[in-house]
Design brief:
This protein is mainly α. It is built from three helices and no strands. Helix 1 (2-21) runs antiparallel to helix 2 (30-55) and helix 2 (30-55) runs antiparallel to helix 3 (60-84).
Length: 96
């Protein structure tokens, strides 16, 4: 039964990966495309890791670290992209 749930989580993760790829074909802004791609990839990767956690529970510290790292990395990357794409160029100039 646990194997079935594990495979379900892994399939859901792959579906999220493909679902995040489809907005790249649209006509929206680059930031919208990056946001939807990063959110879908994060959720998909976390779902796959949960599936692996159900499959090999003795590796839970490493897999939990992977989930936490995914969440922190993608959140920080989102803030960096938002900061770099802001229209206020005064923030980006270096004072000498």
């Amino acid at each position: 039964m646990i194997d079935i749930f594990s495979y379900i989580f892994m399939v859901i993760g792959i579906i999220f990966w493909f679902w995040g790829t489809f907005p790249l074909l649209g006509k929206r802004s680059v930031l919208f495309k990056l946001h939807s791609l990063s959110v879908a990839d994060t959720l998909g990767s976390m779902s796959i890791i949960v599936g692996l956690l159900l499959k090999i529970p003795n590796e839970w510290p490493l897999l939990l670290l992977a989930i936490i790292t995914l969440a922190i990395w993608n959140t920080v990357l989102g803030y960096v992209l938002a900061y770099c794409s802001s229209s206020d160029t005064r923030k980006l100039k270096v004072k000498s």
